[in-house]
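Let's study my pick:
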Amino acid sequence: AFVLGVFGTLIINVLLWQDSSRELSKQYQSREDKVFESSRSLLTQHQIMMNALRSFFDASNEVTKEEFSLFSKDLLKIKSAIAFTLDRSLQPRYLSDPVFYDAVANGSVHMDVNGQISYEVDNFSTIVIGIDEPAQPYLVYAISHQRLQQKIEKNNHTCERFTIGDKTLSNLECQNYGSRVLTSLFRFHSEQ
């Protein structure tokens, strides 16, 4: 009877463990899907903003500084980015948000051996886009690391690492993740 009781208890525990494991797996998959979709949506939205800015220049014969500022400032504030143009001598010309003038002015332009231009701004990831504007043939789209960091910090109970360019950002949960041994068994961890 004792052996039968122990055997019965073990079977019940194994079945409960399997059920718990399936439930945790479902929760993990659900969180993973949400984090992935959020990241994909963010990148898609930035791509839409870059296309909108390029189209703005393509649709106009000449864009003034005021027109650029009006069109881009509020549009980009929503998605945590700034944009600015470069003139033929690769100097910043129009800026979407004057608050970032010093950061952009202190940035640096580089040209690789293939003639590809890049523009580095501290605490931003940038992409340089050719535009149809003779006096300023380049548009620089810059995503703020600080604002992106604030966005991923909202995912508490989920370790999220986000790599953009050569910069990897991670939320506080990732820093705390390794310090918990037992509780980490029941937490979600994902890298993208």
Q: What stands out?
A: The mean pLDDT is 84. The CA atoms of residues 81 and 143 lie 4 Å apart. The first strand starts at residue 81 and ends at 86. Helices lie at 2-58, 65-78, 101-105, 145-153, 172-177.
